[in-house]
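Teaching note: in complex prediction, the entire set of molecules is handled at once rather than each chain in isolation. The prompt given to students was simply: 'Predict the structure of this complex.' The entities are:
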Amino acid sequence: MKTQRILSAIIGITQAVIGLFSGVSAILLGLHIIEIKEVLTSPPEFLVIYILIIGLFSLFSIINALFLIREWRG
Amino acid sequence: MLLGNEKKLGLFSAVINGLGGAIGFEIFVLLNYAYFDLAGPSMISALFFCGIINLVTMLSYSELSAALPEVGGEYTYTKVAFGGFISFMSGCLRWLASIFGGALATLVFVDQLGVLFSVFAPSIQDLVLANTALLIIGLVIMLIILAIRGIEEATTLVVGAFLAIFLIFLFTSIGYSLTPQNVIPEVSPNSLVVFFATTAYLFPMFVGMRALIASAPQIKNPGKNVPRALLITTVVLTVVYFAVAYVSVGVIPSDIPRTAADPPLLNLAASTILGPIGAILFAIAGIFASVSSVGTAMSVQASILGGMSRDGYLPKLLEKAHRKFGTRYIAIIASSLFVVFFGTSGAVVFLGYAASFGSLLVFAIVNFSLIQLRRKQPRLERPFKAPLYPFTPIAGVVMSVLLLTFPILLGDVNAGSALISSLGMIAIVLVTYYLRMVKREVDFNRIRVAVGGICFGAGVSLIIISFIIIPNSLKIITILFGFASTVAGFFNILGSTRKID
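The expected output is the structure of the full assembly:
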């Protein structure tokens, strides 16, 4: 049980970091600080869809991570 | 928008409110793509068809607003008819449509500023277009301050100025030989798909007249005046839009060579008919319209978030009013961040479709609410009844759903993105609703399983996509992300399934 809690903590924190990283990437793409053509070799028309997919991934990752962190903290 | 500000408006003021909400920035931006990239001259017929669809749903709105003249509009109707999740979803969709509309308005502001400078100094126009994001952020910050301070707009003045400009434009065009060809779409499957897709794209030009519904509690004798005002506004709008589009299409051929820096259709037509004065007049009108629309959108968004917060669907923080000005400042700032985010994306066509899809979904829900209320509360006092029931609300639902479908059938990538975004937002709404409203541990664990499942699926998809489309430089990172997401999702499913059992 203790091992599972430790694993939950590690995975939860990793997932939270991934979620935050994805969220920041979506914002940077949205503000054109990083260009979609350079990162994903995709035409600019797909920018919004990429931002939304990355944003959704970020949101669900953070929620998922919070569940795991909650379990770890008891 | 001050809380608790009660007034009594007559029929004329109600019509002005409806026109004030609808006549705005949309005409400067939506006609452009619809004419040059979608339907060509048959765009005029699509506008007329928009008017008819709007009128059908407005009949449902009229019955509901006369029977339930409380604050809240669509959100209140769905709350009384269905309650719970549906009303929460309609509130969120309305909020989203307003966010997309507000973001589109910020882009029109920059575009029209560029058009204005193109008359005096083309070099400044380039500077304006190169700093779109900065200008949008500046505009939104300025409007946040005004919205928090509760500055009211001079709606009557704005509507009067717009109608005057349009009338000058129409009267001056009498001297021109207008030759719009192919105004009626051809009867072939492809041209009909294009026609309906254009109708969907142009639809936001009409939906702003719901402002009239928002002001229903302040209108004298709402049972009579609200339906009348809705009908008068729809007819006036359809006639004005139809006439302006007819003249624009008549003077500007759809096959002229164009570049990204060229002014939109309406500005082009104005400068052709009225010369430089027309170009300046319409650019100034476009700037005022867009600024006014962003301001209105902020007030609407704050009002929706505040209402849902009051009902416990969203954190109480969003309902918090400013100590000095009495406005919901946290809701205003929160919504404005979304407006800036989407506005700086610069995706005009996507935002046009997204605003339209959000509104069409709300229209479908409102029509369903009418049917539900007739069944659930047959004795509710209804000062106005939608004629030809149940065909009117059913027609409203069918037309809304058809308009959502045709742009996708056309294969317009912007429409596809807008629909996926809307569905994605509905997914977020679903999760938010259950996270906020579900209290029992067993339900909490079900949500955990659901979110875990989403992350598990997203992780597996990400690993597969990494091998197919992600460039080599990013492949290892995305595979690791996918793997971590899959494991985290699996852990949540494992941890909570036991507790449900």
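Point out the following to students. The radius of gyration of chain B is 24 Å. Chain B touches chain A through 38 residues (CB under 8 Å).
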